[in-house]
Write a structure and sequence with these properties.
186 residues, Arp2/3 complex 21 kDa subunit ARPC3, two-stranded antiparallel sheet, 63% helix, elongated, transmembrane helix
Length: 186
């Protein structure tokens, strides 16, 4: 009898379940942004950013996969009123930052700070990219509506805090429900 050898293929790309998870989370983000987002007045979470941050936390995509997730999120943002096309730049930047932060250790004992810190920083990256592109377009002569930078900065930081809270709350239950390994308390 010959010895049987089981070869395990190396993962190349996202699995079908990963793609479905990203799609479902982005869809949930869009629905929440449409229905729940309208209930907030000044400070409101950006549920689409929160959901792609959560997806990246759960599936740990490669760099190019994170870019694609960001582009999909930016395309989804085009459905909502606002400044067209800028999200096609700002959301991939936020997704790239989120994917890169996955490599930075952020644990205190068994408690992981990744959900809250990475989401906060990624939301800031997306927000500041958005405002930079918006003002660059404005000063280049494009017909875009702007508000004072101080107001934008307040909105960006408020959104980052709210997104961080949402992702922190959802991360452990989703990780456990999806069977993505032992979930650390955070």
């Amino acid at each position: 009898m010959e010895k049987r050898v089981v070869l395990k293929e190396k993962k190349s790309g996202l699995s079908i379940s990963d793609v479905i998870l990203v799609g479902v989370l982005l869809a949930v983000g869009a629905v929440l942004k449409f229905f729940v987002g309208s209930m907030f007045t000044v400070m409101k979470p950006n549920f689409i950013i929160a959901m792609y941050c959560l997806a990246i936390l759960l599936i740990r995509p490669k760099f190019i996969e994170a870019v694609i997730i960001g582009i999909l999120a930016g395309a989804l943002c085009q459905v909502f009123p606002g400044t067209p096309y800028i999200n096609l730049i700002s959301e991939p930047v936020g997704a790239i930052v989120m994917a890169l932060l996955m490599y930075v250790p952020m644990e205190i004992g068994r408690f992981s700070l990744k959900p809250v810190i990475c989401t906060f920083i990624s939301t800031l990256a997306s927000g500041f990219t958005f405002i930079s592109v918006l003002y660059a377009a404005f000063y280049a002569g494009a017909s875009v509506a702007t508000i004072p930078i101080g107001v934008f900065i307040t909105i960006i930081f408020g959104t980052a805090v709210l997104n961080s809270i949402i992702v922190q709350i959802l991360y452990i239950p989703l990780k456990l429900a999806l069977g993505r390994g032992e979930a650390k308390a955070g």
